């Protein structure tokens, strides 16, 4: 028989602790940062402000995708003022062309597909209520949601802009410990909230007031308050975010 009395006890290998679950701030920062990066707004990359803004609006195609469905809707109602169906079909078709084109070119169709869904929902609402001006209701809802998200994030000290830039600059949420960065990202979020609430404050009362030409007037105002306001704010955000990190690459 073998004497095992003097055998050394085996050393137990310590268990490796499971990886920590990612925090909500990390998940949100990654999501916002990834969205900004897809739009070409990565402050860690060396590019000009003009190029960043042009990328954010999607270039010529992005501008056309943004404005053409609404323009087609307005023109159709001008030609056939009593036929909402034609206007809806024409605007949805205009948005659908971009989605098909992106799919055919094997490009990411997310932007055009999102626009197609938005145009489709607005068109369905017009056909349901019989009021052409109700085409603008989804835009009002979007402005409320986006404006509230930016405002709440700023007031809570977790600026959406800060979360996105912190992720892109490999800074995580360390920016919250820097008073200067925290102030910059606070005001940037406030500015974006102001943009969305300004659109709502101007357009919603017009929609409530109604009138014979309200669709054309409201459509024109929406176009003027779209890219012409969006692009300069993108430029300010880009410059401020880069300045907050100085010469860091």
Written account of the structure:
Residues 1-13 have a biased composition (Basic and acidic residues). The chain crosses the membrane at residues 62-80, 86-104, 111-132, 144-168, 184-202, 214-241. Residues 1-26 are annotated as: Disordered. Keywords: Membrane, Transmembrane, Transmembrane helix. This is DUF3159 domain-containing protein. With 249 residues, the protein is mostly helical. It is globular and about 60 Å long. It has helices at 24-38, 49-56, 59-79, 84-104, 110-129, 137-155, 160-168, 179-209, 214-224, 227-244. It contains 10 helices and no strands. Helix 1 crosses helix 7 and helix 3 (59-79) runs parallel beside helix 5. It has one domain (24-33, 47-243).
């Amino acid at each position: 028989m073998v004497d095992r009395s003097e055998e050394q006890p085996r050393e137990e290998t310590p268990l490796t602790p499971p990886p920590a679950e990612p925090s909500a701030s990390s998940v949100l920062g990654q999501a916002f940062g990834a969205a900004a990066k897809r739009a070409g707004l990565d402050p860690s990359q060396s590019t000009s402000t003009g190029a960043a803004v042009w990328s954010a609006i999607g270039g010529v195609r992005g501008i056309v995708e943004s404005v053409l469905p609404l323009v087609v809707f307005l023109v159709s109602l001008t030609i056939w003022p009593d036929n909402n169906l034609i206007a809806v079909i024409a605007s949805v078709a205009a948005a659908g062309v971009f989605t098909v084109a992106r799919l055919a070119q094997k490009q990411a169709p997310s932007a055009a597909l999102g626009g197609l869904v938005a145009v489709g929902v607005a068109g369905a609402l017009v056909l349901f209520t019989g009021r052409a001006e109700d085409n603008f209701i989804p835009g009002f809802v979007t402005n409320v949601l986006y404006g509230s998200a930016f405002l709440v994030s700023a007031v809570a000290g977790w600026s959406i802009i800060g979360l996105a830039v912190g992720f892109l600059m490999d800074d995580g949420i360390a920016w919250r410990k820097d008073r200067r960065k925290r102030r910059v990202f606070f005001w940037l979020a406030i500015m974006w909230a102001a943009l969305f609430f300004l659109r709502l404050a101007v357009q919603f009362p017009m929609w409530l007031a109604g009138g014979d030409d309200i669709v054309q007037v409201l459509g024109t105002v929406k176009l003027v308050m779209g890219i012409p306001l969006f692009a300069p704010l993108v430029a300010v955000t880009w410059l401020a975010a880069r300045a907050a990190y100085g010469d860091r690459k």
